[in-house]
Amino acid sequence: MANQMGLHVGCLLLVVAVTLLKGAAAENYTVGDDLGWNIPPLGSIAYKTWANKKSFQIGDTIVFNWTGSHTVAEVSEANYGNCTKSNPLALYDSSPVPITLTSNLTRYFICTVDDHCKGLGQKVTIKIGGDDDWGNSAYSPTLNIAALLFCSAIAAFFLSF
Question: Which residues cross the membrane (predicted)?
Fold first, then answer.
């Protein structure tokens, strides 16, 4: 009887651990919320403030929506800093543009039309997760293996009674 109880407790702990590690469902974010991907009225602070209020995770989708003449280009950090339009990592010229976040790498986006980026601040940095963010750890094979080993040890402990 004790062995069966230990097995059930161990299995329950494993299910709980896997559920916790799986994290919350992916979110969809419209870049800039109501502003969309347009020239921000107060310059780059608008998108910086918007992005800093979000907690982007792997699996989330950011969507660039705009009206008028705009683009969205994913660029390197160096090209982001000075709004360099040449050699983008990706370039989109038709709205909407959904982009799924697939890693913890910080991503950089600018508008390549005229001086929308450099002069008017139409650019955004998307920071995905962080080292101390448990929400992202679901995507860490090391943590998943560690959790499985931990649960196995708990189950073995209960099975020994």
Answer: 138-159
The confidence band for 158, taking pLDDT boundaries of 50, 70 and 90, is low
Beta-bridge partner residues of 108: 75, 125
- Residues ≥6 apart with Cβ < 8 Å to 12: none
Structure tokens, 27:
């979110």
Cβ–Cβ < 8 Å for 9, 155? yes
Whether a cis peptide bond, with omega within 30° of 0, leads into 96 is yes
In degrees rounded to 5, what are phi and psi of residue 110?
-135, 165
Q: Tell me the two tokens of residue 66.
A: 């705009």
Domain covering 25-132 in this structure, CATH number: 2.60.40.420
SS3 readout for 41-94: CCCCHHHHHHHHCCCECCCCEEEECCCCCCCEEEECHHHHHCCCCCCCCEEECC
Band the pLDDT of 157: cuts 50, 70, 90: low
- Rounded distance between C-alpha atoms, residue 33 and residue 13, angstroms: 39
Residues forming a β-bridge with 30: 63
pLDDT at 130: 62
